[in-house]
Amino acid sequence: MTTHSIGARSAAFIAIGTTGGIAWAAGFRGYMVELAGPESTISWWGTFGAILVPGAIAGGLLGWAEAIRRAGGRRGWRWLTLAPLAFAIAPMLSPGAIGILLTQGLGGGAIAVPLMGIGGGYALSRRGPLWARLVCGIVSAALVVVLALSGSGIAGSRLALTEPRGAWVAVLATSFVVVLALASSIPHRPTVTAAGRAPSGRTIRPESGAVR
Length: 212
Fold this sequence. Notes:
Blueprint: H1 3-36, H2 44-70, H3 86-89, H4 97-104, H5 108-124, H6 130-155, H7 164-184
């Protein structure tokens, strides 16, 4: 494979990841609107700068991770699993955001959701000690349950799980975190070491398709 074709493949995966990241962030913004209700406002920084742009960055980085994985990996590439932290960093750039987080706890969700995705991605991978993956999976799953149940606590009875709208919002939040975890698992997946090789390192005979 030539350098040009490798670059083109990387660009394609980055573009796909960026598009997916924007779609994820835009959809999750809809979930936030449901929590806020009529008081929700859309602003250039709050929506685009703090949510959509981080979504594009995180998605692009995970798309790049998939390109690297298919090219055999490279030194330090597995750190790209931390790409969702873009969602936690961007809101903290607002004036006074860190102080509000420390004194009032506002903005904690911007940190919790990426951590759920990162921890869930590691739990879903088959890489690393089993006990570590179990711990990450249990903690991430517990936080997802809290997220799903938080609708009524934030927005009142209109988002109670016994109401159709509340049940839908809970499913929406849960599915978004699961998708983020699946994407965050990409840097943990086995690399494709060369053309004609399976990710496990076993070679495939083209004439028969048999694995050896």
